[in-house]
Amino acid sequence: MGWWQFANRTAQALLSLYDQGYTVEAAPLMRNLLGHSYAMNWLADSGEPAVMALTDYWNEHSPRT
């Protein structure tokens, strides 16, 4: 749910910048939004194996305390 909210807020910020004429400044948000949208689509299509892959990656790359 947090990932979906992040994508929605990014889209809102992108549209706000674009509407105010900040097209060049909005471009990095568009690239970010496309990347996250593709990743969420992959997660939805791949199901449990994708969740396990993300969990494994997180466990291997998260800082140890």
Q: What would the principal axes of the Cα set say about the shape?
A: elongated
User: Major β-sheet, in short?
Assistant: none
How much of the sequence lies in strands comes to under 5%
Order of helices and strands: HHH
CA gyration radius, whole angstroms: 15 Å
Average pLDDT rating: 91
What is the percent of helical residues?
over 70%
End-to-end C-alpha gap: 26 Å
- Output the number of helix runs: 3
Number of strands: 0
3D structure, described in words:
By secondary structure, this protein is an all-alpha fold. Helices cover 86% and strands 0% of the residues. Helix 1 (2-19) runs antiparallel to helix 2. It is elongated. The model has no long low-confidence stretch (mean pLDDT 91).
Relevant terms:
65 residues, mainly alpha, 3 helices, elongated
Topology, element by element:
Blueprint: H1 2-19, H2 23-46, H3 48-61
Helix pairs in contact: 1-2, 2-3
Brief summary:
By secondary structure, the chain is mainly alpha-helical. It has three helices and no strands.
